[in-house]
Amino acid sequence: MKGELNSAINETLSELNPVTLHYFESCVSCGLCTPHCPYIAAGPEYEPVNKAEELRKLWRKRVTAVGYALGSIVNAGYPKGEDDLKRMTYMAYRCVNCGNCLNTCPFGIYSGELIRILRGFLSSIGRAPTILKRLSEIESGDISGHGAVMDLWNSTVEKVRGGIGKELPLDREGAEILYLPTFIEAILTPETIISTSKILDALGINWTLPSRPLGFEFGIGSFIGDKESERRALERVNSYVKRIGAKKVILSHGGTTYEEMRFQMPFLIGEKVNYEILHIAEYLYELYRAGKFRIEAGEAKVAWHDPCKLRNSGVKREPREILKASSKGYRELPKSQGVFSRCCGGGSGVALLSEDLKELRGLLGLSQEVDGWEAEFTRDLMRDYEVVMREKAKEVVQSGAEVVVTGCPTCIFSLNKGSELTGSAFRAVHISHYLLDKIKL
């Protein structure tokens, strides 16, 4: 294992740059980030500082003289056995990269970025969850080459066609708008794809839809630090968009997909894109402000849940303005003020490990059961995930909301699961699905 370990540590050093060096050196363990981390509810050991420290131990041992000389005395060292690997893996996967640690830190330290790098290290030594590793491997190629994947996609496309009531504008070159749903949405929230397509068609927009899935989440390799898979997936998406020639790409996935395409893609593929990338909430807000449609107001008690990646990108006002116009009963969730919101707990691949998603394992040809270190890891992670979902559900109940509207399939899954776990009556839906019968021309 020694050679494998050294190789993995050397690989993590490629991530050490002026920004990550600041994250590495400047933390004073003040703890201001702790209350805003969703997984602190699962245990005090999961505060961001402790999780990021697992990577700092490696780097401190390798790149600092004091770490090399004094080792554990200055909290520097490499994993020595299963207990160390277990602790590191548990720490790395109690983070959803929600960004609240960065938003809180007075020194601008992003512990979530260090934890992302830690996941890459663990993956290099064989500690990536099987399903995330398999998803990353498949997405590095053409996922539509898998028959079961294509069957489900075709089924979703047929439902969209049935909802619209006419032939779909599939792969239409020269379309102004390309609606780009992910395969994960076809599994978790197919109604989102149907509703978004129906809205675009009803508004008379020159739009198109891919006839084949272009990726699971357009960069799912980022969950385990697989940059090559991440790059290939985004190159495939970019090539398709350029072939279509769309001026705007509309996403309904407001999680990792949004962040990868908006901010990571140009760096990973080495090319500046010449099209605009928007979430459907942003795009509908543009049209609403321009008077392209009106919204019929109701009385429902509605709240908006911020997907972390949309919130961190500044997309907060747009969905709220639309929802306020749609309901006289709009209210804010207690933990969604300013740049913060309580995370759903399922981001960065955590939700994809849920037993409720056995269909996904079946589509990938994977066993429904895992063994070895992964069996205990998955069981304990899902236990902690449930703790976070319950905390989020309590927040919704406190607000009095009957419907929680959001813009991410993972958030919808987590919120509805939290409602179920706590015996609550609220339901979570995508903003496209919620607005479908409220948009009037």
Question: Strand order across the biggest sheet?
Answer: 2-1-3-4
Q: What is the overall silhouette?
A: globular
Largest sheet: 4 strands, parallel
| Class by SSE composition | alpha/beta
Strand segment count:
10
Radius of gyration: 22 Å
**Whole-Å distance between the termini?**
64 Å
Number of distinct helices: 20
Percentage beta strand: 5-15%
Reading the helices and strands in chain order gives HHHHHHHHHEHHEHEHEHEEHHEHHEHEHE
The unreliable regions are none
Number of domains: 3
CATH third-level topology of the largest domain: Rossmann fold
In the CATH scheme, the class of the largest domain would be Alpha Beta
Helix content: 40-55%
Your description of this structure?
It is a single chain. This protein has 3 domains: 2-127, Orthogonal Bundle (Fumarate Reductase Iron-sulfur Protein, Chain B, domain 2), CATH 1.10.1060; 133-286, 3-Layer(aba) Sandwich (Rossmann fold); 294-440, no CATH class. The strands form 3 sheets. It has a 4-stranded parallel β-sheet with strand order 2-1-3-4, with helices on both faces. Strands 7-6-8-9 form a 4-stranded parallel β-sheet, sandwiched between helices. It is globular and about 70 Å long. The chain is α/β, with parallel strands linked by helices and 441 residues long. It contains 20 helices and 10 strands.
Short summary of the structure?
The protein is of the alpha/beta class and 441 residues long. It has 20 helices and ten strands. The N and C termini lie far apart (64 Å).
